[in-house]
Design goal:
With about 120 residues, the chain is mainly beta. It has no helices and eleven strands.
Length: about 120
């Protein structure tokens, strides 16, 4: 089993920044893709950003140039630096990691951006 602990969500004004963290622990033998998804009220969960073990990244068009995903392999942790936040970034953000053939989700952390 793998446990994911997320932190860093909160309330911020438009234009502000937040940094999300997701630490993985447990039976980690091959941590592959680590990423962040978000789900706004009434909408489907969507990919925000992902990073593979080699460091290549992928971003949703809506966050390119504003968000930066990174990972610390020694700490089994993935980060999401969110800058220039907009009200439309308001959502619950979920960490998702691939370990071997399995996928695990975090419990979610709420981000609210006020206008």
């Amino acid at each position: 089993q793998v446990q994911l602990v997320e932190s860093g969500g909160g309330l911020v004004q438009a234009g502000g920044s937040l940094r999300l963290s997701c630490a993985a622990s447990g039976s980690i033998f091959r941590l592959n893709v680590m990423g962040w998804y978000r789900q706004a009220p009434g909408k489907q969960r969507e990919l925000v950003a992902a990073i593979i073990s080699g460091g290549n990244t992928n971003y949703a068009d809506s966050v390119k140039g504003r968000f930066i995903i990174s990972r610390d392999n020694a700490k089994n942790t993935v980060y999401l630096q969110m800058n220039s936040l907009k009200p439309e970034d308001t959502a619950v953000y979920y960490c998702r990691v691939g370990v071997g053939d399995y996928v695990y989700w975090g419990q979610g952390t709420r981000v609210t951006v006020s206008s």
